[in-house]
Amino acid sequence: MDIVERDGELVFPKGICRRGREYARREIYNPCRVLTTTVPLLGGEIAMLPVRTSKPVPKAKLIPAMREIASITTTAPIAIGDVIRADVMDTGIALIACRNVAAK
Q1: Which secondary structure element, helix H or strand E, spans residue 11, and what is its range?
Q2: Total number of domains in the chain
Q3: Is the same domain home to 16 and 42?
Q4: What is the reported pLDDT for 4?
Q5: Within its chain, how far is the Cα of 28 from the centroid?
Q6: Which pLDDT does position 6 carry in this prediction?
Q7: Does some domain include residue 61?
Q8: Contact 97, 79 (CB under 8 A)
């Protein structure tokens, strides 16, 4: 099945549902991904805290976002969902903790 652009409008083959069309449009015009990584954690039971973005980040901003995140260090205790950075790359997307970590 091919998706074709004709006169600036996407033309989909028959049988593609509404959600599939919306997904295809997003992937063509503004592909985004949830960014998962780790940041150093001071004073905790583990040395690196798993984190992720609260929403998908535009693919064009993934590498710059990783560079920004590489400069972050946080301190225990941490709870799942704690905001580590409120606004990554001026996107309005938060970086949040993915694990509970108690202080040593």
Answers
A1: strand 9-11
A2: 2
A3: no
A4: 60
A5: 18
A6: 60
A7: yes
A8: yes
Query: According to DSSP H, which parts of 2-73 are helical?
Result: 18-29, 62-69
Q: Which domain holds residue 22?
A: 1-30
- The rounded Cα 80 to chain-centroid distance in angstroms is 16
User: In the structure encoding, which two tokens stand for residue 94, read together?
Assistant: 């938060």
pLDDT in tens, 7-44: 567 777 777 788 887 887 788 888 999 999 999 999 99
Report yes or no: 42 and 76 within 8 Å, Cβ to Cβ. Answer: yes
**65 shares a domain with 89:** yes
Count of CB atoms within 10 A of residue 90's CB?
A: 8
Structure tokens at 35: 């960014």
Within a domain: 102: no
